[in-house]
Specification:
CATH topology: Cytidine Deaminase, domain 2
Oligomer: single chain
Bound molecules: tetrahydrodeoxyuridine
Helix content: 25-40%
CATH class: Alpha Beta
Largest sheet: 5 strands, mixed
Structural class: alpha+beta
Number of strands: 5
Strand content: 15-25%
Order of helices and strands: HEEHEHEEH
Number of domains: 1
Distance between the termini: 32 Å
């Protein structure tokens, strides 16, 4: 598992290079490890009409789900600030739809990171 986590952290760090963020200059990369041990990556994609911006976590999630992988074990999130960044509320809600027991790895550097349970970041969540 440690090898997979290291690979996931590398993938998130690599993914942030593809961020399209000319407005905020805040680059985010996300990498999701699915139940079948497949990795899907995403980066944030901004728009001149700011509210159309899509976060890295949701880009990675949509790629995974539309490829037939909708059970997630881990997500790693990296930014270009060398600081951990917590996912926004919209992304937490998006992720909990698919994985109640997801573990969220917040990357500071490739060797320094923190792991949280998604439920601890969004303890009271909306489900139908
Ligand atoms: N952003 C993400 O990609 N993920 C988050 O969870 C929070 C924010 C992006 C959106 C925007 O492009 C930039 O970070 C600044 O808000």
């Amino acid at each position: 598992m440690d090898d997979l986590i290291n690979e996931l952290i590398k993938s998130a760090t690599e993914a942030l290079k593809k961020s399209y963020s000319p407005y905020s200059k805040f680059k985010v990369g996300a990498a999701i490890l699915t139940k079948n041990n497949k990795i899907f990556t995403g980066a944030n994609v901004e728009n001149a009409s700011y509210s159309l911006t899509i976060c890295a976590e949701r880009v990675a999630g949509v790629k995974a789900i539309s490829s037939g992988e909708s059970k997630f074990k881990y997500i790693a999130i990296a930014t270009n600030r060398n600081e951990i960044a917590f996912p926004c509320g919209a992304c937490l809600q998006f992720l909990i739809e698919f994985s109640q027991n997801l573990k969220v790895i917040l990357v500071k550097t490739e060797k320094k990171y923190k792991i949280f349970d998604l439920k601890e970041l969004l303890p009271k969540n909306f489900t139908l």
